[in-house]
Amino acid sequence: MPDTTPLAPMTPHTAISAFNYLRAVQADDADAASEFAGAEPWMPELLVDVAERIVVPVTALPGPEAGEPCEDTFALEALGRVFVTSLRIWAQAGPDTAEGIAHAVIDFAAQFLTEDHEDVTDTLRQLEAVGVGQALDAHPAPTGAPHCRELPPTRSRRSKGWCDQLSVYSSWSRAVV
Questions:
Q1: Where on the phi/psi map is residue 98: left (φ > 0), alpha (ψ -120 to 50), or beta?
Q2: Helical segments of 60-156, H only
Q3: Cα–Cα distance measured from residue 25 to residue 22, given in angstroms and rounded to the nearest whole number
Q4: Coil vs helix vs strand at 43
Q5: Phi, psi at residue 147, to the nearest 5°?
Q6: pTM of the prediction?
Q7: Rounded to whole angstroms, how far apart are CA atoms 119 and 92?
Q8: What are the tens digits of pLDDT across the range 34-85?
Q9: CA–CA dist 101, 35 (Å, integer)
């Protein structure tokens, strides 16, 4: 049976740190990646947390409105869980695993979430917008703090779909806690 334990909400700082690192690795900017990893000693664990927030909703079984799931949907859900578990085990090896985990997350985003006409950089920015938005919802700014500008909406229908899935998953996680 799949683990349905809700994820503890990330803080805005940890979400931003993880996505800064992902974008630095994706851009092959070793100096920036090293700086971001050095500033966050738990970077591998943060990346696994981000990966789980991306992978689980994208590979989860469809809801009852979608009808009976087929063997392929069960396989995809199981594959997503194996992927996240593998990343979690890999992260336990220490801080030197951050780059490999980042590449795995970037490859997942490129293969499952990026359409032909998009760049994975755009997809990572959309994921960051969703992740930081969820973190801000879970950790609102103190009363009287300046408001952040609105994040741009997603552009593609496929992207909109996975952004909706991430939002539903986040809402479910907060409701269960």
A1: alpha
A2: 71-91, 98-108, 120-138
A3: 5
A4: helix
A5: -80, 145
A6: 0.73
A7: 31
A8: 999 999 989 999 999 999 988 888 888 777 676 777 777 788 888 999 999 9
A9: 17
